[in-house]
Amino acid sequence: MRLKYILLSLWLIAAHAQNINVQVGGRTVGAESTLNLVPGNGIMHVCVDDKSQHRVDCSPSFNSAVVPTHETIHANENYCLSTTGTTGYTCRLPNSALTSYRAGMTVVLNVDADCATACSLNIDNIKPVNIKKADGSTDPGGALTAGQPQWIFYDGTVFRLMGGAGGGTVADQRGDVRARRVIASMDNLPYQASMTLDTTAGDLHKIRTTPNAGNATLNAATAGLPGQHMWIIITNDNSSAKTVTFGANLLNSGPLAGALAKSATIHFVSDGTAWYEVARTVGL
């Protein structure tokens, strides 16, 4: 009889030892003799009974039809650099080759030639596709500039620019640019006997004479770009009237004679070879 109780105790101990205490996040969810891994929401498990180690090894995996991979979503890293030197842009995507164009795909396009009228893009040698403005029908017409990356997307037929027409401006059918407001930056140039304007620092330059200084000569560092305008404000101190003579790259109607404690303005326009005086106002 005693042996019967001993055998029963051993059986209970063995049965209890087979229970597995399962916790999730430190919280016990059950203690049973069997742990069942149920696939769900794209997550799957592959388990192997390793008898030599007296254990079962389980490796998690996922169903790519439910959980998309990076390759499925992008099929590439989306930087497209064209170095053809022409408007027939081509590029190879850096992560992996694109096999086909898909409607909605986006790419950062960086080119080395301006798209003055029409242009196209061929990614990973699939086929050339025309590039259009955001409306899907108008050629870029200057809206795609060398060295200025822009997001584009494929609509199933063409690539569309997502950056508008050159940084928020809009060009009409003649190629003229229309914008709500364009404000030129102002460059303050210290007064001295010989001064040189940095014509890339802005289209408005201001010079304030100093009381103990004499007359001065003003030069332009470059001849500017064709069609570029430049305005200069010269404010005379209240000590003595200063005369400013114009030198290199500035074609003018003569020296500008200052008036005590007064300001003057002078307007130039460039044809790409020199700056031409347009108008001046004194005694302001």
Summary, kept brief:
The protein has 284 residues and is mainly beta.
Describe this protein's structure:
The protein has helices at residues 2-17, 70-73; strands spanning 20-24, 27-32, 43-50, 55-62, 79-81, 88-91, 106-110, 120-123, 128-132, 150-154, 159-161, 170-171, 177-178, 186-189, 194-197, 204-208, 216-220, 229-235, 243-246, 250-251, 256-257, 263-270, 275-281. The chain is mainly beta. Residues 164-168 have low confidence and may be disordered. It has a seven-stranded mixed beta sheet with strand order 5-7-10-11-9-8-6, with no helix packed on it. A six-stranded mixed beta sheet has the order 14-16-18-22-23-20, with no helix packed on it. The protein contains two helices and 23 strands. It has two domains: 69-172, no CATH class; 186-281, Jelly Rolls (Sandwich).
Keywords:
about 280 residues, mainly beta, six-stranded mixed beta sheet, 2 helices, 23 strands, elongated
* Residue share in helix: under 10%
Question: How are strands sequenced across the largest beta sheet?
Answer: 5-7-10-11-9-8-6
C-alpha end-to-end distance: 124 Å
Largest sheet: 7 strands, mixed
Tell how many strands the DSSP assignment holds. Answer: 23
Ranges where pLDDT stays below 50 over 5 or more residues in a row are 164-168
Order of helices and strands: HEEEEHEEEEEEEEEEEEEEEEEEE
Number of helices: 2
SS-derived structural category = mainly beta
Radius of gyration: 37 Å
Share in β-strands:
35-45%
What coarse outline follows from CA principal-axis ratios?
A: elongated
Q: Count up the domains.
A: 2
Q: Kindly state the mean pLDDT as a whole number? A: 83
